[in-house]
Write a structure and sequence with these properties.
The protein is α+β, with helices and mostly antiparallel strands. 49% of the residues lie in helices and 11% in strands. α5 crosses α7 and α8 crosses α12.
Length: 385
């Protein structure tokens, strides 16, 4: 049974526990306010109430984290809820749940439940959210994030001269909050109606024959999996992670099969391997494991340290101001020089055909792609000779 007295700050400061016994006290100056003193000396406030025929209790907090005045004020707030028929425990549970759904916690959930299963480039989404959203708003409840908070992140990136990064970050932030709305964690997304903060111009960088030869030659300095990745990228013209994630089960003779789960645009693709590409793949198949391009440091997983390898390539080759996508653009440009039209180039690159006819055209164009890639591989031999 609680000891009744009028709580004072002096009494709370000097209150000592009894050995081996917990004690309970009731405040005569504030109906429903009580204090529990454990045998370890921990003091915690709570509010006891009656709602209809039932009684309940809500923990307010520990003293001195909660002062006496704060505890009494909180009791008054809770008493008003009870007077209107609301159980304050329900409100507290909802508030607790809200506070646990932080930006950081929900971003991790988004990566595990959405990005990893659906996107091969999930690491990029994880990196963007971690570096820009979580670093700024990580401890905040998702329900407290406003449009202005996102604008502040984008404004900072723009001020640092990172315009394209701001656009990429906004895309990932928009997808993250959209997923929260879709899964009913939020009513609306704070990223809605935010436009890209930076106007990007189409990139027109294509590697010259001299640059291609320099990069190919410099790849000898790379470790075997990165060297094979670079050369297969130039020979086959496929996307960075599609090539990096090449597996044993995708290869059948001189064909490389990419399912809709293996491609960025969710479009199946069959890549005929030229003689030069098949030589590289055959060598990779001699090793054990499912993934053919791996370092061995992280087990049977594809390579991913592209920024480090690219810096090494740039230094050794002397080619500057290029990026990995330029390899793919250079393949497309050289196919055009060899006389192939844009339709066949799109087939090789596995670009989506947005025309109405594409819905009905189920022909694989395998022979056409084989001819184009072999002719390009032969031309590449001439370039690097």
């Amino acid at each position: 049974m609680a000891n009744k007295l009028t709580f004072t700050d002096q009494w709370l400061r000097t209150l000592k526990p009894k050995e081996g016994k917990d004690e309970h006290f009731g405040d005569l100056a504030c109906k429903g306010l009580s204090l529990k003193l454990t045998k370890a000396g921990v003091r915690s406030f709570s509010y006891t109430f009656r709602l209809g025929e039932k009684t309940g209790r809500v923990t307010i907090g520990h003293y001195p984290d909660y002062g006496l005045k704060e505890a009494r004020d909180r009791v008054e707030e809770l008493r008003k809820l009870v007077a209107t028929g609301i159980d304050p425990r329900v409100i507290k549970a909802a508030e607790k749940e809200r506070l646990t759904k932080t930006v950081e916690a929900m971003a991790k959930l988004f990566i595990e439940r959405y990005a990893k299963p659906k996107n091969k480039s999930w690491k990029q989404a994880e990196s963007n959210l971690r570096l820009y959203l979580v670093s700024s708003l990580g401890p905040r409840p998702i329900s407290s994030v406003k449009r202005g908070d996102i604008h502040a992140i984008l404004d900072r990136l723009i001020s640092e001269g990172k315009g394209p990064t701001a656009n990429r970050s906004l895309a990932h932030i928009r997808k993250f909050f959209g997923w929260l709305v879709e899964r009913d964690f939020l009513e609306s997304s704070p990223a809605d109606h935010i436009k890209n903060p930076f106007i990007e111009r189409p990139r027109e960088r294509v590697l010259s024959d001299h640059e291609i030869r320099s990069i190919w030659t410099a790849s000898e300095a790379l470790s075997a999996p990165y060297r094979a990745w670079l050369r297969l990228s130039l020979l086959c013209g496929q996307r960075k992670m599609e090539t990096a994630s090449l597996t044993r089960s995708q290869i059948d003779g001189d064909l490389w099969f990419l399912s809709s789960n293996n491609t960025k645009n969710k479009r199946e693709n069959i890549v005929p391997l030229s003689r030069q590409a098949k030589e590289i793949v055959d060598e990779l198949l001699k090793a054990e494991g499912e993934f053919l391009l791996k370092t061995g440091r992280i087990g049977d997983q594809p390579i991913n340290g592209f920024s480090k390898y690219k810096a090494e390539l740039s230094q050794v080759s002397g080619v500057s101001n290029w990026r990995q996508h330029d390899l793919r653009a250079s393949v497309a440009t050289n196919l055009g020089k060899l006389g192939y039209d844009r339709f066949k180039i799109k087939l090789v690159l596995n670009h989506k055909d947005t025309g109405v006819t594409a819905i009905y055209d189920r022909y694989t164009y395998l022979n056409e792609k084989r001819e184009a890639l072999q002719k390009w591989a032969d031309r590449l031999d001439e370039i690097i000779s």
